[in-house]
Amino acid sequence: MPIPITCPACRARLKLPPGCAKKKARCPKCHARVDLAAALDATAYHQDSAASLSEFTVPELPVLAGGAAKPPTPFKPSNPSPSAGPARADTVVVPLPLPDREEDPLPYRDLNPAARPAAAPPGDELLTLDEDPIPLAPAPAPAAQQPFRAPAQVMFDSAGLFTGACEAVLVPHGLFLESVPYRPFLYAAVRTPVSGTGRDLVLTLGGLRAVTIRFLGPDGERVADDTAAFLAGERPVPTPADARRTPLWLLSLAVIFALGLAAGPLVMGETTELGSRLGVPTAAGFAAVGLLANVAVVLLLRASVPVKVAAMAAVAALGTGVFVAAVSAYVAGRKHEAEQARAAEPPPLVLAPPTPPQPEPPPPVAPVNRLLTAQATALRDGVFTFDDGPDEVTAVAVTPGGKAMIAGYRSGATRVWRFDQLPLVDPFGTGPRVDGPVTGIRFDATGELAFFATTGGTAAVAWNDPPEVPVKIPGEPFAAFPFANGERFATVRGNALTIRYLPTALIKRPDTQAKGYPLLQPKDEVIPIDVKGQIPLGGQRPTFLAWHPTGKLLGGHADGSVVSWGAAGPRFEVVSRDHKAAVRVWAASPATGDFATGDAAGIVGLWANKAMTPKVFSATSSIAAGAEIKHLAFSPSGTLLAVADAANVVWVWHLATMKPVVQVTRPTTVRALAFGPTDDLILLGTGRTFELWHRPELAKQP
Fold this sequence. Notes:
CATH class of the largest domain: Mainly Beta
Largest sheet: 7 strands, antiparallel
Helix content: 10-25%
Strand content: 25-35%
Shape: elongated
Radius of gyration: 46 Å
């Protein structure tokens, strides 16, 4: 059956023979070239051609073989589905005569959507004039936008007109369904009620007619969503690019752009002397944000592949620009602060040259980059010397995690140095002050509380936010340990051993109304449930108190024996007699669970892997007459042990081989000893100052 079209030049009604495969033809009236595809789209899918789509019926009459025909009652059956099985052998379907409607848009024959008409023989005269007069009103102009086509299948039709495979055609004013090209049989205008999930859409047409459409193909769900939004008036006609799958290589390109963002902070962090501690987290943050942005561009942006690639490149350029601007501002601020500090320094005093001949000037000293941190300077120069303190050094300790160093002095003052500070720009911070010389500094498991051993007791304080006057716990010696049910401490008061819970809340917020240093009162102390009051010592006052990594409380006697009260007492047992002189110093390694003790005869005991018996070895400068062990310190990794004796000899022992890697004699008394934030840095307190040594450089000293 010919297909009616309109000539776009003269508006003549033309008829296109069925099976035509040409793209263009010549109008027999005005001899103009006619674009057949555009003319078919403009005619078949015009809004005015949808008026007769609801009037189509296909009456047919089933007749049994050899039997009488049923009454000829017309009805509206469904079109045969491609998946339907073969018809019954004893049934013959006799179609009723169909009206000859030249312009009816529904196909009455060849309803199989897969069948396409054969190509017409080549020829120039393909179009013939319609017998109808030329309409007075102008014919519809060809659509500016190509229709969007998608394979579909009608799953259900409440009117029973059609079920089976078809093709959905979306034009600016609505949706057409056709089983034969350019012969639509159903029309749904924009704003038609639509619902559904997944690939299925339910259209509610006039007369309460409901039609269920399922979109086929790998992108059926996306096409269904776009069609629903189009019919709801929320978007224009979809395009083939909207239904095109996102290439997987775009996600790989998103990862590459994200890694490119990470490279910038790493390189800038090293070249601007900011260090990897700032560059690595910044690089990770920029890479994560860039990856999220690029994945969102790939998955959510409805655009062509070149546009998506350009968008990802723009995200990478924007992230790099933000980082460069931030780093430039940071470095400029630090340089400005350094220049201000240098300008504030008083000019050096210039003395008049003496009358005798002047000696040759020393060689010029290479300028020191004062913007380096203390540990960076020590790694570069071998040693870094801190500014003098208010009095002689008596103790030093590094916080858990290696973020800061706390120094104690004979006057009771303490100072805090954070290892990310710059020596020229940032001075020492003021720490809490105690009422006597600071003889030792310990920390709790969290690193928030610090315990400063002093005359008559121990001051407990939150070192990062110290109060004006800290709380003092009476008794000495003192030991604190974190238990699963709370932090507890042990101390000697009079001739008895006292074990109590640590009042953390009172330590962080002490009583500001008390005069002087407030002492911890009995009402503020809580006895643990597994402790039987105070434990008598029987005249054996311990030379040290410490909690073993297993949770047992250890103490020392004057003859060198080490005793244990278990977790709570009350009786003690001798766990080691390996030391032959009094043990007064000890150290513990949270990293490995090792414990070390040092006695007055120069013997060190290593309690490895939470063992309750030590392995002793001589770590002294004189084998004949051992010098007393004054200081012990484990490295952050627990693989090294630093020892300082009364003869000012510093040893560093490698615990895996039990061999010394450093043995050096210092010219002045070593008053404090600790490892720096890493295994290759060692802090030595001498006089009123501290020296931060690079361990290989310290080993070269005489």
